[in-house]
Amino acid sequence: MKKLLLLNGAKAFGHSHGRLNTTLHDIATEHLSHAGFELRRTTIDAGYDVGTEVESYLWADAVIYQFPGWWMDVPWIVKKYLDEVLTAGHGSLYANDGRSRAHPERKYGSGGLAQGKKYMISTTWNAPEEAFTDPGQFFEGKGIDGVFFPFHKAHEFLGMSRLPTFMANNVIKSPTVDATIERYRAHLTTVFAQACAA
Asked: Which cofactor names does the annotation list (predicted)?
């Protein structure tokens, strides 16, 4: 695994300025380029060409998504990007929904053409970590990957497999930017060293 597509889903909106997500996107760029990875980058809010983005998915061994959690989901610019780019990937990223009258054993969601490709989420939330992990708190112990279940299923539909998610917490109420950056560097080292060895 040597080719990575880095997607920055930061957006200035309301009380969010997008600075931490852009910082983490830049940290990934610096860290992984120094580690010898070949990179392509897109800042979604700056605009993009859908065909070029599809080609970048086809080129990449893995995709890193950087975005804040907004209203328990991805920002609308990230959802719009996925709707446009993945739909345009029909015939290259996925063939169909997988089912076939001639082969009734084939199940829904098995028509992806991106097998072997991987993706990783790096996300920022004002919610504390325990809000995700404690069954008695807001997310009922489902964890960040449970919150992003539809996002993961969209990528599984393509045939992609996920890498461990990175989450920064308390980013407004109690920010610890330097510690977050160091933790993210360590996460990238661990995840991509393991991915390269696999």
From this structure: FAD
pLDDT at position 164 is 97
Domain holding 145, by residue range, is 3-195
Phi, psi of 57 (to 5 degrees): -60, -45
Q: Phi and psi (nearest 5°) for 101?
A: -60, -35
- The number of distinct structural domains making up the chain is 1
Cβ neighbors of 18 (< 8 A, separation 6 or more) are: 10, 11, 12, 45, 68
Cα–Cα dist 8/36, whole Å: 20
Q: For residue 159, what pLDDT band results from cuts at 50, 70 and 90?
A: very high
Distance CA 79, CA 172 (A): 23
| Contact residues for 27 (Cβ-Cβ < 8 A; gap 6+) | 181, 184, 185
pLDDT score of 195: 59
d(CA 122, CA 149): 15
Least confident of 33-47, 53-67, 171-185: 171-185
Indicate the residue type of 113: L
pLDDT for 30? 96
Mean pLDDT on 47-70: 98
- Which CATH number covers residue 96? 3.40.50.360
Query: Partners of 13 in the beta sheet?
Result: 16
Query: What does the alpha-carbon distance between residue 62 and residue 117 come to, in Å, rounded to a whole number?
Result: 6
